[in-house]
Structure prediction request, 274 residues.
Amino acid sequence: MKTKKIAFQGELGAYSDEAAHTYFGDNITLFPFRDLSDVFDNVTNRNVDLGVVPIENSTEGSVNQTYDLLLDTSLIVCGELDLRISHCLIGNINANINDIEKIYSHPQALAQCSKFLKQKKWNTIPEYDTAGSVKFIKNQKITSNAAIASSRSAEIYGMKILHRKIEDNPDNYTRFLIISNQSTKSTGSDKTSIIFSVSHSPGSLYKVLEDFATRKINLTKIQSRPTKKEPWSYNFYLDFEGHINDLKYQELLKTIKPKCGFLKILGSYPKTKR
Prediction:
């Protein structure tokens, strides 16, 4: 079996790394990138086969950059994964939790551990990645610095876990999307993601959503994002159950398209299994 080349944002040991292994197994080669835009670019240019990108967290909400990149790219969403996120406080091998003064991590991870962090007068410093923060404090070799990341990152970089399960909400999940240049076939248990806009007039959004209701199509998420073309104009990102190639959903698209100022199909993909 051919080894898949998978791009993700962050360093080895990041939650996107864990998501890639959970979704694809171990027969993969990972390509870490500093920014999400680099992941999209490398999948688009076919330097890698697929990308794994975070789209939302169950407690802290959406990853807006991913939504914006989905709008601007020709890539297709071909899969999703809900990954349980459990944070650890990680320090150097000789570190003691009572001596910690500064904590580094991604802003989302810091926010997801806010209750734990309030217990001490620690200085929190945002970084671009959770595992990258572990790598950073390892290179510093300062025992009063710590990072918030996964237990996997502590193992990869040979660091010490000072405290486990420090997230505020034990039911903490991040949803990841798999992005590709190729679409997927219907499995019978699928989800579809689209982007659309409507005119700024009474009932315009309702008229689109009504067509989903009358066909008994279940919506799993709706999210608005600024178009960035003019103030107070928005695109709507919508997920619904079903595959776009099935006749029922083809007929739906024909009905809603004239009601939309803009309509883009991001892709259909198998629904996640936790």
Summary: The chain has a mean pLDDT of 95. The CA atoms of residues 3 and 27 lie 5 Å apart.
